[in-house]
Amino acid sequence: MKTYLILEDGHVFTGESIGAVKEVISEIVFNTSMTGYLEVLTDPSYAGQAVVMTYPLIGNYGICHEDMENKKVWHSAFIVREISRRASNFRSEDSIDNFLKEHDIPGIQGIDTRALTKILREKGTMNGMITTDENYNLDEVLPKIKEYKVTGVVKAVSIKEKEVHESELEGTPKKVALLDIGTKRNIIRCLTKRGCEVTVYPADTTAEEILSDKPDGIMLSNGPGDPKECTEVIAEVKKLYDSNVPIFAICLGHQIMALANGADTEKMKYGHRGANHPVKNTETGKVYISSQNHGYVVKEDSLPKGIAKPLFYNVNDKTCEGVRYLDKNVFTVQFHPEACGGPQDSEFLFDEFMKMMEVDA
Amino acid sequence: MPRNTDIKKVLVIGSGPIVIGQAAEFDYAGTQACRSLKEEGIEVVLVNSNPATIMTDKNIADKVYIEPLTNEVVEKIIVKEHPDSILPTLGGQAGLNIAMALEEKGFLKEHNVKLIGTSSQTIKKAEDRQEFKDTMEKIGEPIAPSEVVTSVKEGLKFVEKIGYPVVLRPAYTLGGSGGGIADNEEAFCEILENGLRLSRVGQVLVERCIAGWKEVEYEVMRDANGTCITVCNMENLDPVGVHTGDSIVVAPSQTLGDKEYQMLRTSALNIITELNITGGCNVQFALHPESFEYCVIEVNPRVSRSSALASKATGYPIAKVTAKIALGYDLDEIPNAITGKTYASFEPTIDYCVVKIPRLPFDKFIKAKRTLTTQMKATGEVMSICTNFEGALMKAIRSLEQHVDSLQYPEFQVFSDEELEEELYRVDDRRIFAVAEAIRRGTTLEHIHEITKIDIWFLDKIAILVETEKELSEKPLDYELLLKAKRLEFPDEVIGRIVHKSVEEIKALREEYGIHAAFKMVDTCAAEFEATTPYYYSCYDSENEVSDKKTRKRIMVLGSGPIRIGQGIEFDYCSVHSVWAFKDMGYETIIVNNNPETVSTDFDIADKLYFEPLTAEDVEAIVKLEKPDGAVVQFGGQTAIKLTEALLKMGVRILGTSAENVDAAEDRELFDEILEECCIPRPKGTTVFTCEEALEAAQELGYPVLIRPSYVLGGAGMQIAISDKDIIEFMDVITQHKQEHPILIDKYLMGKEVEVDAVCDGENILIPGIMEHVERAGIHSGDSISVYPAQSISEKSQRVIVDYTRKLAKSLHVIGLINIQFIVYQEEVYVIEVNPRSSRTVPYISKVTGIPIVDLASKVIVGAKIEDLGYEPGLQKPSEYIAIKMPVFSFEKLRGAEISLGPEMKSTGECLGVSKNFNAALYKAFLGSGIDLPKHKKMILTVKDSDKLDAVDIGRRFQALGYKIYSTRSTCKVLNENGVDAEPINKIEQSSPTLLDLILQHDIDLVIDTPNQGIDKSRDGFLIRRHAIETGVTCLTSLDTAAALLTSLESGTKELKVIDIATI
């Protein structure tokens, strides 16, 4: 079925429908990973967004449900050049087209994803609509498209009830409190396999409630949307920060921690979404390739002097990729050490977190 | 870390002559590295015995030594030049081995020379089997378990540990004979017993069998600070069992999920970290197709063929970055030249699909075994880029220039289903076509997968192509269908063939529908950052993103495609130099080529690089966009010449010699007219189309005759016939392919062969020098030892040669380069071949004479005159140096290939010996090609009847040098009768001890065996030659070559005075 992608600047791409047939308006972002489409599709950080994969051949190895980073797909839509008609992998259980249908996610294939990516790169992230209605009227739809804003997504993606994940190791576990503001499953896995018992809290949990469970460490997860929108979470995180419990935060958690300490964030032109971003550790001088997915960034010059200092920066555009809080057992990173998809080079940061909890105990 | 300023002068060791497994990729890597070093203000000393390379140019390195690549030579250069460092990881295995040898013996330390880049300990850890095994075990990286066993009992004990199936490889047997794969104990015992018996040392290697697993490679980089990145990963379409150089390779991997991808990526990075690699490195894995089990096959701690491919596939210049790392820079300090915004520590990501297909030499070696194994056989490769896999595959297939333009393979169409299934079991270069034919006949993909182990994903893509063929043949060719076919890169010609329409009709239809190729950029970052790199590929499902804005006059240079026997790296040398010359003159240059191993496909050579097949249709799409003011075809070998007519049709001006005149040189009748006009004699000959005509012509001319198709390269299909029987057989071979042009038959004259390259500006000619071949006419010029300046051609004949050259160049209205081959027979000069284009000898002559031939030719092509360029027309004064070009062969890599030399070219590469003294030059040339005698002073001499008398002199001279000679009865008899001591030895089919036993004793220095001409070559001689080659014994098949070797041995010179040719 013919499908159209209409961008807010009036560009129209014509392709073929994949997944569910329905009309959606969302923010359009691109991801440059060559593998890991299922991980991308199930990453809650994309809530409210439609993702364009720049790699043209998607679905080659099918769907393996155990690789899902969340039980739901939070994307609004999926945009690709070509969906593989046959999936081939020993673990594959389904095709991507079926998977999208099952999760009621619409999509489009057969468009020039590179041309689309170039528009987003040059003009910045923008909104768009996917529709199968060939009689669309640009004058009518463009204002609607422009109006769209990603909002209220953290609450939507967060779990509703507290849940506990047991340690995979023998012995007394470290108790980690994970504030779910859109967490990927692998953050939990990275902790449980290191001997942590992870309690996942809904995004609206108060600091008091978390602290009353006496965690050895606190983890702030990744998540979607504009961090400044999460005013309540920011306030609670400030209290967690003051508690002196070791904290490790990733992505949205990193931004919220910065905001809680008086720093500022801003929206990037088109963000970082891919599996190939080099980040440099300011303390060791080492460079790691990281998996990234963020449209907002902590303004490095806004970091409160004497309280926080940059820990990582992006080698390409020099933006802030991590912060160490001085005199506190707290560090945060913008990128994804839990990988999935993407490189596992910075997974050792979880070991650092373990050490912090060790020292603190 | 910033650059290490202690490094001021670096020695770079090249990889030597092109042989199978070590080809043009090292010229590309070495050239890039040298330029990268010079950019940093470092003085570069280069040594490489291969004169056809760009790296041996004086504008690439400061000091250039074209010398044999031996430890002794490199030591001499170090003593003379005092470099402070050696960069050993860019010259392939050859360069690495020398650097390691000098390091181990303490020579480098003694002379204060450091190895920069990856350290010697690291190289040893990666290359030494045991150390590598220990290292992998230490970090828990799996390798296929293996053990050398000496008894069945021992073998059974080991196999109990690792389980079936296992591979058995007896040590020291010919071409791996006696080995095999065992699935159970019975088969195991049987193969092992047999293998132990066959192995000279009674050893058999038993190894866990991983055949059929997925083969995946990672190209990784690491700096001294420990930062690691993956440049690219690649998946082989052919599962483990076929050498990666012979496999169809896809980048990035297609059938690996993120979990597998990251698992292997992490493993690769762990390995290079543990090995402490600094620079580029290649890690090969076997991945079980149905689990996460994997093992490390191999680690190359250096730049390799795969890194050349990865560089071209991603745009990331691995060799350049490796050189910078060796100087001390970290990855995050080296800017990415493509984006200017990112750094070398950014992992490339690509938004297209890349396919590489090897170019195999079975068109040259019809008798060689086509089976692909772990021994590489390809001479070159092509790469293609498209937005989908099917399109990339189709583009790569037509880039091969092997008379195949799609997955339709006529030979298999006539096979019965049983024969076809058998073909699926055969792992050879045609398997992909057999797969397509099987799918066409309805064989299920699962069944094909079961037999071939090729992943279903790839098979399904082939099925899509086959289904599209069917759709085309059944449905009306509407817009959707035509667009679909074009998106999958069906050439117009194939579509036309299927729908029974002409190419023009399909083209017109495309125009009508508005279906045009669009060009996209290769930018390392999937469009995430703005890039300005002018590196493009075409596709049909996209918007064009290449600007056609023109500010200067634009010249298109057509490259020479894959390296194959007869068309090698020398044409890349010529293409690159012409691009440089045009750039110099202020033109905008465009290069079109499809060979990932070359310098010409580096994105910073021409102003724009189109990585595309060199077919009329593909080139036309570029022409439409770029509207070049002219195109140059004379530097890209036959590949480019073949496009002349098509370019003219597109309205592109051919710069230099006009198309009609190129034709005149190839068209027998036109050419004869010109010769007659100029009063230049040629051996009598005629043209024929049929076998009957050929027989008639041969009888009229009198045997022996030369027979060959017109418009060929490297003497393809050229044979000497001595009887009607030969004629019938040759004609049969030649006419297997459709012949658009007649077949040539000439009287064969056994004279001295002489070759000339000249630049002509329409009025005057410039001849840098005259080259003389050591072997008499009848052996392809590319396979002959060539001597510059000519040593035994009389002054009178030289004058005639110059005169003929001038006349021919003028009558053919040559503007640019011309190559002419002459025969001097009884003081009479005959012309045998004229090529109005660049030739194989151009790079070597340029280097030894110091005359930049391609540069001059390029300038002449756009209107300059020889005199204005500061040269006196005519034959130039001979250089004070004698340069001897020695052909180098790769016969040991091609099982079953006939090694005897003839009019069809067989060598894969060449090396040069340069000296003021003839004997010293000859010694260097032999040494460079790997012939270093005497050793045991034992030899076998067996010759055909017509050579028997000449053999007496050869025998006598070897005897005088103290050689013990063994001969077959008839040769022995002649030798003995003429007072030469020779011991008779039985032929192979006679009782032991035979010639074969003698060869297998491993104390024979040399086999001289001149085979009978014609097809009727005895099985015996063939076996002797093959065994000699496979046991590493030098084998000569021409008495002229033998005489040259004798001259060298008799002179006793072992002089190795190294010469910096940059000073010539």
What does the model show?
- The complex is a heterodimer of chains A (361) and B (1064).
- Chain A is α/β, with parallel strands linked by helices.
- Chain A contains ten helices and 19 strands.
- Chain A has helices spanning 37-41, 96-102, 113-123, 138-147, 153-157, 185-192, 207-212, 231-242, 252-260, 348-360, and strands spanning 2-7, 12-19, 24-31, 49-53, 57-58, 77-79, 82-83, 106-109, 126-131, 163-165, 174-179, 196-201, 217-220, 247-250, 265-281, 287-298, 308-314, 320-325, 330-333.
- Chain A has a ten-stranded mixed sheet with strand order 10-12-11-13-14-19-18-17-15-16, with helices on both faces.
- The mean pLDDT of chain A is 96.
- Chain B is of the alpha/beta class and 1064 residues long.
- Chain B has seven domains: 9-116, Rossmann fold, CATH 3.40.50; 129-139 and 211-348, ATP-grasp fold, B domain (D-amino Acid Aminotransferase, Chain A, domain 1), CATH 3.30.470; 146-208, ATP-grasp fold, A domain (Dna Ligase, domain 1); 359-515, Carbamoyl Phosphate Synthetase, Chain A, domain 4 (Orthogonal Bundle); 519-648, Rossmann fold (3-Layer(aba) Sandwich); 663-888, ATP-grasp fold, B domain (D-amino Acid Aminotransferase, Chain A, domain 1, 2-Layer Sandwich); 932-1051, Methylglyoxal synthase-like domain (Rossmann fold, 3-Layer(aba) Sandwich), CATH 3.40.50.1380.
- In chain B, the strands form seven sheets. In chain B, strands 27, 28, 29, 30, 31, 32, 33, 34 and 35 form a nine-stranded mixed sheet that branches. Chain B has a seven-stranded antiparallel sheet with strand order 14-13-10-11-12-15-16, sandwiched between helices.
- In chain B, helix 19 (492-499) packs across helix 20.
- Classes of the chains: A alpha/beta (361), B alpha/beta (1064).
- At the A-B interface, helix 3, strand 15 and strand 16 of A face strand 11, helix 9 and helix 17 of B.
